[in-house]
Design brief:
The chain is mainly β. Helices cover 0% and strands 41% of the residues. A hairpin with a 5-residue loop joins β7 and β8.
């Protein structure tokens, strides 16, 4: 005979760490080549001059300079335009 009652199964108890998304450098700060400027899921912020986006949409600095953020409107496939932030290194 068992000395303990049936415990049942543990479901949905796994927890993963946060992905540390967001801005890593603020406007006006100096950066070097390859520095991570923005970590994001999807293209919420767009790479501009002096920057490039990697496969996971992370925006990096392509040259040394100062970071600047700019608002511009992007056209979607439906023809509607939406505002997006553009990251620039000058």
């Amino acid at each position: 005979m068992s000395k303990t009652k049936a415990g049942g199964t543990a479901r949905n108890v796994h927890d993963s760490p946060g992905q540390r998304l967001g801005l890593k450098i603020s406007g006006g700060q100096k950066v070097k080549v390859g520095d991570v400027l923005v970590r994001q899921i999807g293209m919420t912020k767009r790479p501009g001059k002096g920057t490039f986006a990697s496969r996971d949409f992370t925006i990096h600095a392509a040259k040394d300079g100062v970071v600047k953020f700019n608002q511009r409107r992007i056209k979607r496939f439906s023809g509607r335009s939406i505002p997006r932030t553009e990251v620039i290194v000058e």
